[in-house]
């Protein structure tokens, strides 16, 4: 099963790697492909992952959020607007 989700807060390749690593920790995830442009993740799973689980994992990974999620962290990352500093 494929899930395509749009992600807010990614600004660089480091962000992409952080999001990818975090999503791979979710039980049932078989593969993840995260892109910066467009900012999204294609998640291959053995079941549907609910949005709350995705929100929790993305938030813990560095303040990322699902697009359209008004509760997400919209604050800029470290200096320069990048997670890399």
């Amino acid at each position: 099963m494929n899930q395509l989700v749009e992600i807010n807060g990614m600004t660089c390749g480091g962000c992409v790697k952080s999001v990818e690593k975090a999503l791979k920790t979710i039980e049932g995830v078989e593969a993840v492909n995260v892109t910066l442009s467009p900012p999204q993740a294609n998640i291959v799973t053995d079941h549907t992952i609910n949005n709350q689980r995705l929100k929790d994992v993305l938030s813990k990974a560095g303040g990322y959020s699902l697009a359209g999620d008004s509760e997400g962290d919209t604050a800029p990352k470290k200096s320069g607007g990048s997670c890399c500093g």
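The two ends are 36 Å apart (CA to CA). The longest helix spans residues 51-62.
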